[in-house]
Amino acid sequence: MKDILRRHSVLQDEVVDIINKQIKMEAQSSAAYLAMAAWCDKAGYDNCAEHFFKQSDQEREHQMKFFHYLVDMECDAVSPSVGDSQHEFDKLRSVFEKQLEMEIAVTDSIHDMVRVVRKVGDIATEEFLRWFVTEQIEEEYVARRCLELFDVLGEDKVGLGMVEERILDIEYDAGE
Amino acid sequence: MEITKEHIYSTDNASLHQCDESEIYELSFSGDTVYFRACELITFKRKIQKIDLATLLSSETPDIEIIHMPHCDRLFALTTHNILELKDLFAGAFTMLELNSVIHKQLIRKVI
Lengths: 176, 112
Ligand SMILES: [Fe+2]
Hints:
The structure holds two protein chains of two kinds.
Chain A: H1 4-8, H2 13-42, H3 46-72, H4 92-119, H5 123-153, H6 157-166
Helix pairs in contact in A: 2-3, 2-4, 4-5, 5-6
Chain B: E1 5-10, E2 14-19, E3 24-29, E4 32-37, H1 38-50, H2 53-58, E5 64-69, E6 74-79, H3 80-111
Antiparallel strand pairs in B: 1-2, 2-3, 3-4, 5-6
The complex binds fe (ii) ion (FE2).
């Protein structure tokens, strides 16, 4: 009997499921960052707003990367439904604390995925996930540096003004 | 030319065959026959597997679940009994198909 199954099902069901779950998480993050951008903009922190708009775009790109991977592998990619995002924050620092929290959650989730693909011996997907592992090192670094600005500059009017001034300069240099 | 269908798995009222020639799967179920390409079959199987019987039984309309199959644009109204049977059929059929894959991997493709 011809092995048709192998020709058409590249990924195992469990792997398809965890990728679809991650697609949802990335979509949720993208939406959350949008809400954070809106809060910053309303509060008059234009640069912080721009920072979160960029973050939102990035999460959308991550989502699409996963989505295309499933489609390319002839698997079912599910366009996710996204729940409500947090729109209210008590102060600017809280918005950035939320950012770090979200990025840590994403890192944990990506690491869990790596463990699953290792368990089922899906070497190709493990290779695909490598990019996300590296990306999360960068995302967490940026989130931590943002919060450090508050520690260093303080949270009075002048301090927050300086945070706003420097926020767009934060970049990850990969130890160069 | 006689087209041979490979029998994959059967339950009381359902069976699945594979046609090597056309790479089409034939699902016979309560007197009905539906044809699937491989990815469509996998999609259908996943839909059936994802139906949670406990949730279904406690819902307002416990006896029927509607499944849409986009590839042939048909709606299937499945009873709880049908779903149980299809779950059984796919569990058995995919075990056979995976076994066939293993045989190809270990024996047939290795020889080439
Ligand atoms: Fe992301």
